[in-house]
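User: I'm preparing a small set of examples for a lab meeting where we compare how different chains pack in three dimensions. I only have the primary sequence for this one, and I'd like the structure in token form so I can line it up with the others. Please keep the answer compact; I'll paste it straight into my notes.
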Amino acid sequence: MTGSAAYPHMEQLIRFWFGFLLLLSALPQALQAAAAVDLGVDVLAKRQFRELQGKRIGLITNASGVNKNGASTLDLLLHAPGVRLTAILAPEHGLYGTSWAGEKVDSLRDPRTGLPIYSLFGETRKPTPEMLRDLDVLVYDVQDIGCRSYTYISTLGLAMEAAAESGKEFFVLDRPDPLGGVRCEGMPLDSRFRSFVGEWDVPYVYGLTAGELAKMIAGEQWLSKRPALTVIPMNGWRREMIWEDTGLLWVPPSPNIPEAQSAFFYVLTGLLGEIGGVNNGVGSPLPFALVGAPDLDPYGFARVMSRSRTPGVVFRPTWYRLFGKEGRGKVFGGVQMHLRDPRAVPLVPTALTLLEEVNKALNGSPIAGMRAEESSMFDKLCGGDAVRLALQQGKSVKDLWESWEPYLEEYRTRRQKYLLYPESVAHPSLGEMGSEVPPVEAAIPKAQPVGATRKEP
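Assistant: Understood. Below is the structure token output for the 457-residue chain.
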């Protein structure tokens, strides 16, 4: 006898294990479906927008303001029975996300809806009494990325203050922090360097949703006057979730944040954008996911960064060009970063290590050669001059980030009373450098010294 005839139970056993393996393969999808999140706007819609019934609404939003199925909050409010959408207010990058970073946004009339669009990144960055005259309520629904220097949270707080001063209600339709709600990292804000890229006394990575941050801004009395604030929380979101756990669609909140992981890359390389001669991928197909310079040897730099033993990230040597006129005749050598485990990456320590190593590799010229306006913006992004001075003086960046830990501990305690979603999981590896050797390190061939004159590929 041969085959299953020789083993009468073999066929049933094979079928059992095949079915079991099939079930295991389907488990991640099932778990992902179970983890689907109702955004604040979804919760509001399920309640038939009853909190906004009969009120004249001004909506602060952009292209990222969508429900879990991708329908815009703008359209939902426009067609909600009993709701009077009267005006739109647009943050940096404009309503449709077509303006570049730092580019002035004009107020205009929306050709699609006929509503006025008041710019909050033009002549004013705070709603004026004239903008709010015909409104009863300001509603905020913008996707944030969890980093202090990303300007939407500045718009959030200033709009809250304007609403309070004009006697208007303020609603926040809550959304996830794509970095998760656990990690709190990085530089405190020195009040001398307060600016639109560093408005609130939170660390560089602050671990709050927009609704939680709004509660903290009001509760800590960082405003001249507190508004009548209502936060519509999410259903199903947990602090340990990063975006890919939510089952939600990602709509870019600005031109250089095309994917949810871009939020991680923004923290890793955003500061490099203010250093002359160094590029962070902005202007390429991989914004914020690259670090390069025309005179940087990619193999040597990748080897140096791999030796930092940073958990969760791989540094791969690469060459690249930029789009448009900036890319003509110029090839950048450097590294592309791949996030194997975004939760494990200590973002701010890695960002400072990148700054330190690229500055060393280019013989100190990036930091020493910064123009006055670059130094000023760099310090504002950092919330102070400590990072720049440490790099200029050759001090250890590790000592710098370790010195912030008492502040971060105090902040973690202070933010507790503003949390809408309880803490359940401590982050296992934030701040820990040296626990993992990225496998790519062994594949990088020995090369000429970092910073040596490169050859075209």
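A couple of notes for your slides: Strands lie at 56-61, 84-90, 108-109, 116-119, 137-141, 169-173, 228-232, 290-293, 313-320, 332-339. The chain has two domains: 40-243, 255-443.

User: Perfect, thanks.
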